[in-house]
């Protein structure tokens, strides 16, 4: 019999197992290092942007403060005499500044210095919240910032006599290109060196330390050795990146403080030039205090004479006592900046130093933030690398194993049937990675779009795209089951990928909220088809005794793609904008398509044959479904656990969390990190909880425990706010998912009514209820936001979840009436 070309290649590879495994693992290492490098460079670029924005905001607020001094006296902004000269004095000598402007709140330009900043009108109009600029992001200080083509544009509000916003000061500056290039080149060199050294070490281990029999037999060394190599390479590079972030943060902060202090240094030198000495200066604590209040990184400012005596000291709260301070000449350091005074003055008593001491707490907070960026990069890259290693292990098993055939000579899949889930897992990972890219900013993007004729409350408008997507996913989830029965699993999977790609492209092109909601609905249609089609693959191809592990593997791939995609999408959005992320998501759907055509192709013919057999079975009638829904046990499971959890899950993760954290001044990348908590918990804690629940005789207790834990997490947001409180709520909701998710299906499948109805049919009904809760989640939480505010609205959702759990606890049977659960 003539061998196929692929078989010839595989035969050749079997003769060189060490070379095959080494090259494959090196390819995965290279891909993983490329990913971590790309994410790290993105984070470094954001570091440069943030530090540039800090510098520009300091200058802008200094200019705004000078203008507001006149506005407090009752001067109208439109009739402010000397506005242009004052603006020029405030920004003169500022490094890298391209242009500055003062505008009214309606966008009318009143004064310009240099070039009018790009987008100045739109960003000024968006400051008071009356309009939206999709390119601008709101900083924790309340300023708006937009980034384009190496330019940072920033706007700060001008408050009138009554405290209302009457205008804006808008500045634009170029990013520090030289510093950015230096950081990027240094990091690339370290990345390449680490990758090369670890790659050589990996090849040496496979060549000299790992037995050939272990590789050929599919031993653990195939997975463990490259995993350890990946962790080593990414750990070393992450440590260097954290050090780079700290050094860069300190350097830029010192430069920004020096930039601010230069103006104060010039003023003091001018006064000293009139013949005064340092010890005769009075009232210098006031400008010191104003400067410290303007820039939080400045802890205190000292005026020191030539002998090292501290003459004056002030912080953001005012003057400080200098009595009893030691006499010592100040020294520059990481947290101290020393600027000479009176250097050209002939009188030695007029010479001294202006000393600015940086806040250790503020610097440490900045370093922690950058370290979290680096840790996020490592986590995302490592999760993705593990998925690539699992795919590599699957491909190597196929390369080393012989193909099995049925007694009639027909070919079955080239894989162990107990590992069917490993085949679908890479496809699920790739699909969810692409789908989740825009997940962290959907409500934020929806808020930037015009309503498109929709007359709904604001919070419901923001929830509409997500709810439409979930509703469409509900419809196609039911349709996918029928398609799988009649035509095979591949039809809904391939159709879903095509529809999702079209939906992503439509999202990028949407011009208003109505069009965007319709586009998200298209994505939801594709999501339901692909997700349920892959579930159909597991159900039809996996033996009954292995369905649990195979389904768990697919769900792990789902959450791995979900958390990786959300974090990567948030970082991409900060660099490229909202619309580009949708385009990237559409392009990346090619990867799961390739997975279906390459990994799952051997199962397509067999799937068509089985589909005809399944379609011939008797189907449950609508009356039977209604009767099942009205039963005390199954109906209460849906109403007391499945639907409330889905409302809380999607309402918090996909809708409330981005809005809640943005209101707290949290960056988009931090929102992605919080979303990662949920996925990591489900991936790594969920299987452990599954084993514990399987050994438990009463599954109801775990369902109730999940409801209690999840509702407590939601209620906690009423009593605490901020990033840590949100992270704790997400963690508790993830634990609730582990408890309830591992126990709902076993509890349901053991019910006599379910067994009479049919296990597969009842599972479809439960999945439909799950989708119904996901569709209702954003609407319920959005309505609560409108009625009670963000914190109280989330707490009210938690109360609904808690009441439903207590209802299930009191009324649902602990065990099936005809047996044990």
Task: Give descriptors for this structure.
821 residues, alpha+beta, Beta-Lactamase, Growth Hormone, Chain: A, 4 domains, six-stranded antiparallel β-sheet, five-stranded antiparallel β-sheet, 11 strands, 68% helix
Helix % is 55-70%
Mean pLDDT, as a whole number?
A: 78
Poorly predicted runs of 5 or more residues: 1-13, 402-406, 611-618
Assign the CATH architecture of the largest domain. Answer: Up-down Bundle
Number of domains: 4
Q: What's the shape?
A: globular
InterPro entries: MFS, MFS_dom, MFS_Efflux_Transporters, MFS_trans_sf
Protein name: Putative transporter
Keywords: Cell membrane, Membrane, Transmembrane, Transmembrane helix
Domain Major facilitator superfamily (MFS) profile: 377-816
Describe the structure.
This protein has helices at residues 5-14, 17-71, 83-91, 120-125, 177-209, 212-216, 221-272, 285-294, 360-400, 420-436, 442-448, 458-487, 490-509, 513-541, 547-576, 578-588, 590-599, 604-615, 622-629, 632-663, 668-684, 686-694, 700-719, 723-749, 752-757, 759-788, 790-811, and strands at residues 97-104, 109-114, 137-138, 144-148, 151-159, 165-174, 298-305, 310-315, 318-319, 336-341, 352-358. It has 821 residues and is of the alpha+beta class. The chain folds into 4 domains: 41-178, PAS domain (Beta-Lactamase, 2-Layer Sandwich), CATH 3.30.450.20; 210-389, Beta-Lactamase (2-Layer Sandwich); 415-617, MFS general substrate transporter like domains (Growth Hormone, Chain: A); 619-812, MFS general substrate transporter like domains (Growth Hormone, Chain: A, Up-down Bundle), CATH 1.20.1250. The strands form 2 sheets. Strands 2-1-6-5-4-3 form a 6-stranded antiparallel beta sheet. A 5-stranded antiparallel beta sheet has the order 9-8-7-11-10. The protein is globular. 47% of the residues are buried. The model is unreliable at 1-13, 402-406 and 611-618 (pLDDT under 50). This is Putative transporter.
């Amino acid at each position: 019999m003539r061998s196929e070309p692929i078989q010839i290649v595989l035969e050749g590879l079997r003769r060189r197992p060490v070379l095959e495994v080494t090259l494959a693992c090196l390819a995965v290492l290279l891909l993983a290092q490329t990913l971590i490098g790309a994410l790290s460079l993105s984070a470094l670029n954001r570091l440069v942007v943030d530090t540039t924005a800090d510098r520009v905001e300091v200058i802008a607020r200094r200019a705004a403060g000078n203008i507001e001094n006149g506005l407090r006296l009752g001067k109208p902004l439109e009739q402010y005499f000397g506005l242009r000269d004052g603006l020029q004095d405030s920004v003169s000598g500022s490094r890298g500044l391209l242009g500055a402007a003062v505008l009214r709140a309606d966008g009318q330009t009143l004064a310009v210095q240099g070039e009018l900043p790009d987008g100045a009108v739109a960003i000024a109009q968006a400051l008071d919240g009356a309009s939206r600029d999709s390119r601008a992001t709101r900083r924790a200080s309340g300023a708006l910032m937009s980034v384009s083509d190496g330019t940072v544009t920033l706007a700060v509000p001008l408050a009138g006599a009554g405290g209302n916003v009457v205008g804006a000061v808008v500045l634009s500056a170029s990013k520090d290109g030289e510093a950015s290039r230096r950081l990027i080149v240094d990091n690339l060199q370290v990345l390449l060196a680490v990758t090369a050294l670890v790659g050589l070490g990996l090849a040496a281990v496979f060549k000299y330390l790992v037995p050939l029999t272990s590789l050929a037999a599919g031993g653990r060394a195939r997975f463990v050795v490259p995993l350890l190599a990946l962790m080593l390479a990414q750990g070393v590079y992450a440590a260097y990146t954290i050090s780079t972030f700290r050094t860069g943060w300190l350097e830029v902060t010192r430069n920004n403080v020096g930039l601010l202090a230069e103006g104060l240094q010039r003023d003091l030198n001018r006064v000293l030039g009139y013949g005064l000495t340092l010890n005769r200066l009075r009232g210098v604590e006031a400008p010191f205090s104003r400067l410290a209040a303007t820039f939080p990184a400045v802890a205190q400012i000292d005026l020191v004479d030539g002998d090292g005596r501290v003459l004056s000291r002030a912080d953001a709260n005012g003057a400080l006592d200098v009595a009893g301070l030691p006499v010592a000449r100040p020294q520059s350091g990481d947290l101290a900046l020393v600027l000479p005074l009176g250097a050209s003055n002939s009188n030695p008593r007029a010479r001294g130093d202006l000393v600015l001491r940086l806040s250790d707490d503020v610097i440490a907070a900045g370093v922690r933030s950058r370290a979290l960026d680096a840790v996020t990069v490592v986590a995302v890259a490592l999760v993705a690398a593990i998925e690539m290693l699992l795919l590599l292990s699957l491909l190597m098993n196929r390369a080393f194993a012989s193909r099995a055939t049925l007694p009639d000579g027909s070919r079955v899949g080239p894989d162990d049937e107990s590992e069917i889930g490993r085949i679908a897992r890479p496809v699920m990972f790739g699909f969810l990675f692409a789908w989740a890219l825009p997940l962290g900013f959907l409500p934020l993007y929806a808020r930037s779009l015009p309503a498109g004729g929709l007359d709904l409350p604001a919070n419901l408008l923001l929830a509409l795209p997500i709810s439409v997507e979930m509703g469409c996913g509900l419809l196609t989830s039911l349709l996918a089951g029928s398609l799988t029965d009649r035509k095979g699993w591949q039809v809904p999977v391939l159709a879903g990928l095509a529809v999702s790609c079209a939906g992503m492209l439509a999202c990028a092109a949407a011009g208003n909220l109505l069009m965007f909601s319709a586009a998200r609905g298209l994505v939801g249609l594709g999501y339901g088809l692909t997700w349920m089609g892959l579930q159909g693959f597991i159900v039809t191809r996996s033996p009954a005794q292995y369905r649990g592990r195979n389904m768990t593997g697919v769900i792990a791939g789902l959450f791995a793609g979900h958390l990786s995609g959300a974090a990567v999408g948030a970082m991409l959005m900060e660099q490229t904008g909202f619309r580009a992320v949708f385009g990237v998501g559409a392009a990346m759907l090619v990867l799961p398509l390739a997975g279906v055509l390459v990994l799952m192709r051997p199962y397509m013919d067999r799937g068509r044959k089985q589909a005809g057999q399944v379609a011939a079975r008797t189907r449950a009638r609508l009356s039977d479904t209604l009767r099942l829904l009205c039963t005390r046990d199954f109906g209460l499971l849906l109403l007391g656990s499945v639907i409330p959890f889905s409302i809380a899950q999607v309402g918090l993760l996909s809708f409330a969390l981005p809005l809640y954290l943005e209101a707290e001044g949290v960056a988009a990348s931090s929102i992605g990190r919080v979303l990662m908590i949920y996925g990591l918990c489900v991936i790594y804690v969920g299987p452990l909880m599954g084993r514990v629940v399987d050994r438990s005789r009463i599954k109801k207790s775990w369902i109730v425990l999940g409801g209690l834990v999840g509702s407590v997490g939601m209620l906690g947001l009423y009593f605490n706010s901020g990033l840590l409180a949100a992270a704790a709520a997400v963690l508790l909701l993830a634990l609730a998912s582990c408890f309830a998710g591992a126990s709902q299906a076993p509890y349901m499948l053991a019910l006599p009514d379910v067994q009479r109805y049919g296990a597969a049919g009842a599972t479809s009904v439960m999945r439909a209820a799950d989708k119904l809760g996901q569709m209702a989640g954003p609407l319920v939480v959005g309505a609560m936001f409108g009625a009670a505010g963000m914190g109280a609205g989330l707490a009210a959702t938690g109360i609904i979840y808690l009441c439903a759990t207590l209802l299930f606890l009191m009324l649902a049977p602990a065990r099936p009436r005809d047996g044990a659960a």
